[in-house]
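Pasting as-is:
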Amino acid sequence: MTKAGGPSGQGGSFAPQGRATPGELNDQVDLCLDDATVHAVLEAVDSYAVILNGQRQILAANPVLLDALALDGPTRCRGLRLGETMECIHAGEGPDGCGSSRACRRCGALLSILATQATGQPSGGECLISLHRDGRWEAREFAVRTSSIVVAGHPLTLLTLRDISALKRRETLERIFIHDLMNSLQGLKGWAEILQGAGADATSVAGHVLDMAGHLTAEVDAQRRLLQAECGELVPDLRRVPCAGVLDALEVALGADVASRLIRMPISPEAGSLRTDPSILCRILSNMVVNALEAMPPGGLARIWFERRAGRPRFVVENPGCMAPEVADRVFQRSFSTKANRGRGLGTYGMKLLGETVLGGVVGFTSNWTEGTRFFIELPGDD
């Protein structure tokens, strides 16, 4: 099987643009409807499956996909491309819809489709996709496989998508959370052994133990909240808090060492207050600050400030760097990370998930060499 890779010679457009005419599309759909093999294949596949034409438009879809997307019949997705059917957040960014935006260059499904169409050989890979469905943002991961299928003499493409989101979530937990958990437990054990030895300063050791226990408790609580948010079970504790008080609490949560690298811009006395869950908001802002500092050389400084946009409260964290396009396009995907040696990938994903699905705000960023990289969370206004 060919491993999906970037096709060569595509130039700026990357994937071929253009779609079948309505007449051509109807003829292609009829070919699939009349073919017993197509029906048998689609019925046999227990994951998402579609038949695509040369323009990557859906001609037929299996019941698994239709049920998962709550589509009342196959006609709802015919003629659309995969990202348009699944409501990928990048599907409308390019001039020709799904497959034509900058972010599409790194789509595992598109790479696999193009590889099979170019070689006629099976291809596969993984597709990390961010969706916006029913007003809710979510990140999903799929194992992708494509193969060529000939229907009435016409070469088409069979695409299957197997949801591996749960597997990726477990792998991330094992790499990040359990690793951090073991480090914390080893630290607690070490301080306990010091306390057990002769001449130990019990007060000092107790302080270190309390600090590590607090860190461990915070990490467990953060993972619990993420799991609840993914299941739609996390209910925010909404209350009114002073805008300046949010940043006061953030500095305490970050600790003196990290807070010393954060420039806090003054907040006007007229800033007033906002209604939110202060604990969740503090967690989101902490992730923004830590990510900003990790993107800079040692000793670099980040800035944070509060502002209002059209009456909506907004916190912004800035660092002077600029993200590479391949990072910017995938920054909120759960399994993507620039820290390959540590296997992280929940920091920015957690910001987006908690900030939008739980707090009802908007989490985003801008990145250029003029203003640097700015992550923000904009919260609902009081109206």
